[in-house]
Amino acid sequence: MANVLTPFVYWAQTETQISLKVDLTDVKDVNVDLDEKKLRVVAYGQGARGLNNYEFILDLYSSVNAEESNYKVVNRQVDFILKKKYPAWWPRLTGQPQKPTWLKIDFDKWTSEDLEDNEDEKRDVCNDYPGTYDRLHKEEFGYRKEDFKKVYLIIYNLCQFVGFVYVHIVMAVMYSRDGPAFMKDTYAAVGNAMKFIQLIQFLEVMHSLFGYTKSSTFVSFIQVGGRAFILFAMIEAEPRMQTKPVVFYLFLVWGTIELVRYPYYIIQLLNIEISFLTWLRYTLWMPLYPLGFLCEGIVILRNIPYFEETQKFTISLPNSWNFAFHFPSFLKLYLLVFCIPLMYMLMSRMNQTRYKKLGKSKLRKKYVYFNE
């Protein structure tokens, strides 16, 4: 018995069964002894200590049905399915509180497809049993292991929130000091910060493109790209527009929307529910989106004569490409063909999302919950 070693064993569970993965390859001579509360496995195979005899014994937390349980040997492991005698969520696999060092938690299976009859049904145990999931993570790693994607998104949203807080604080302080006279200096005061924030927002398009968020890539690009067009092509490119009061109102509307949106995303990532913030997120857009589109439309309209005068971004014939582009005409077309449909599309989408988040049935449930 001196040559008998213990393999690594990974476990996961549903309410009705336990799955075990024994980390052995090229397995031969498997001997399995299973009763209601004990599993003993002896096998010869390639494990962490090379080709050798391996053995482990598990004293189970509760009873299993030995007749309905089974195992199979595959190329890279030995898989066990142990049917629980009584459907229940086990707080641990073993009867003893101390977990053997060779026993690991198979977190991949905890959030993958349920191994029961319904193959289409997905189970997210992290959401279904957050307390148990967190405790097992802490037991396994000594701390709550967070997903890199989640940590990154929290940091991104927090940085964007801080950026818009900075813009709003500067605008508020200077307006309180100088009054409406400050409006003409808005872009000089916060324009660089707003440009930096806006460029960083293009990461949100990448987030949806690579599956970091569930938002539409097209909608994200339209929203971020539309703002970037106003900021860089309409304001940054025309110094006379930078001193107009409409820039102050535009930045105020943009910032107010984001000062609610980014904290809402952060609490969603942290699985925290703040009803008032949710209500703000899906209600504040109703006055602010039309105001934002109005300010953007004014910026474009005021810029048309400026670009007629300067011919900036206009390509005239003759040229080597044999191509002409009249930028002021494009701005008129942009207003008629793009802005109005875009406003309708975004507001319709937000209205549908608002109904899902704040529909009558959900509001009624929350009201009943808080008054019980």
From TrEMBL:
Enzyme Commission code: 4.2.1.134
GO MF, one annotated term: very-long-chain (3R)-3-hydroxyacyl-CoA dehydratase activity
Protein name from the UniProt record: Very-long-chain (3R)-3-hydroxyacyl-CoA dehydratase
Uppermost EC category: lyase
Taxonomic lineage: Eukaryota, Metazoa, Ecdysozoa, Arthropoda, Hexapoda
Predominant localisation class: endoplasmic reticulum
Residue ranges of domain CS in the record: 4-94
Catalytic reaction(s) noted: a very-long-chain (3R)-3-hydroxyacyl-CoA = a very-long-chain (2E)-enoyl-CoA + H2O
SUPFAM superfamilies, sorted: HSP20-like chaperones
Protein source organism: Ceratina calcarata
PROSITE patterns hit by this protein: CS
Topology with respect to the bilayer: Multi-pass membrane protein
TM annotation in the entry: 151-175, 218-235, 247-267, 279-301, 321-347
Pathway recorded for this protein: Lipid metabolism; fatty acid biosynthesis
Subcellular location: Endoplasmic reticulum membrane
Any one biological process term the GO annotation gives: fatty acid elongation
Keyword Transport in annotation: no
Chain's role: Catalyzes the third of the four reactions of the long-chain fatty acids elongation cycle. This endoplasmic reticulum-bound enzymatic process, allows the addition of two carbons to the chain of long- and very long-chain fatty acids/VLCFAs per cycle. This enzyme catalyzes the dehydration of the 3-hydroxyacyl-CoA intermediate into trans-2,3-enoyl-CoA, within each cycle of fatty acid elongation. Thereby, it participates to the production of VLCFAs of different chain lengths that are involved in multiple biological processes as precursors of membrane lipids and lipid mediators.
GO CC list: endoplasmic reticulum membrane
Keyword terms: Coiled coil, Endoplasmic reticulum, Fatty acid biosynthesis, Fatty acid metabolism, Lipid biosynthesis, Lipid metabolism, Lyase, Membrane, Transmembrane, Transmembrane helix
Family recorded in the similarity comment: Belongs to the very long-chain fatty acids dehydratase HACD family.
